[in-house]
Amino acid sequence: MQPEQDTIIVGKGESPISFESRYASSPTEVKTMNTEQIRQHFLIENLFVADQFTWVLTFFDRYLTGGVMPGTEPVTLEAPAQLKASFFLERRELGMINVGGPGQVIADGVAYDLDFKEALYVGQGTQQVLFASLDAANPAKFYLNSTPAGYAYPTRKVAKADADVVELGSPETANHRTINKLLVNSVLPTCQLQMGMTELKPGSVWNTMPAHTHDRRMEVYFYFELPKGQSVCHFMGQPQETRPVWMQNEQAVISPNWSIHSGAGTSNYTFIWGMAGENLDYGDMDFCPIIELR
């Protein structure tokens, strides 16, 4: 089954919205897909368009992945028509990490300055959210993740200094990396959304190896800080039936809960991981022995 086609709509305000829905796919379906079909279902190529919200909704846990790049004027978060909500966060929570120039987010009248790699959680029930770049010549790029929510946790900024930091891997296995847990339950309360950022050291290219699955959560990866002319090969699929997805800088990929999510780059890079599901335990993973991957 093909994903629904992109639609451009205008919200209740003046900020244009690009919105796309993608159906959930089973392992049986994915086994039959060719390269282009896999990319259509799982790869998100263009997240940052000037003064426009870009959203992709996957029916895996109704996870929304998006981006916005404000210019000279602030842009207002509106509820896409497909959500059937009076405002975006009526039944949702929102997380974001700024991957561009200095920016500001105003949530129900409270301003939060977000520098490069700083995060913000916005709780369910927040009615007005505005996004702005503090320097239009170096615009902010807000990478956005949103999930359904049932409780109104407070809005909170999380700088890198506030993160729960773990260092894993080694140069010998080319996966020496720093994991910055930003919007996770060891740092702040959320309903189901979790977000963090993993930075690979120079000379390391593998992330999340050995690979794993977690049936209780789905995940989205966003790759950035990838040097010009370099790529990342993202691996998805069941452990014994993997599929490669070649990706470029500032692209995202949807990972179903039954799928591994691992990648290797032609250079080191940084990636943001976002998760949703019934489990907030970061360590709840079903690891796949490296020599058993197929």
TrEMBL record:
Keywords for the protein's UniProt record, in alphabetical order: Isomerase, Metal-binding, Zinc
Catalytic activity: 5-dehydro-4-deoxy-D-glucuronate = 3-deoxy-D-glycero-2,5-hexodiulosonate
Residues holding Zn(2+): 212, 214, 219, 261
GO MF annotation, one: 4-deoxy-L-threo-5-hexosulose-uronate ketol-isomerase activity
Cofactor(s) needed: Zn(2+)
InterPro entries: KduI, KduI/IolB_isomerase, KduI_N, RmlC-like_jellyroll, RmlC_Cupin_sf
EC annotation from Swiss-Prot or TrEMBL: 5.3.1.17
Protein name in the entry: 4-deoxy-L-threo-5-hexosulose-uronate ketol-isomerase
Organism: Spirosoma oryzae
The gene coding this protein: kduI
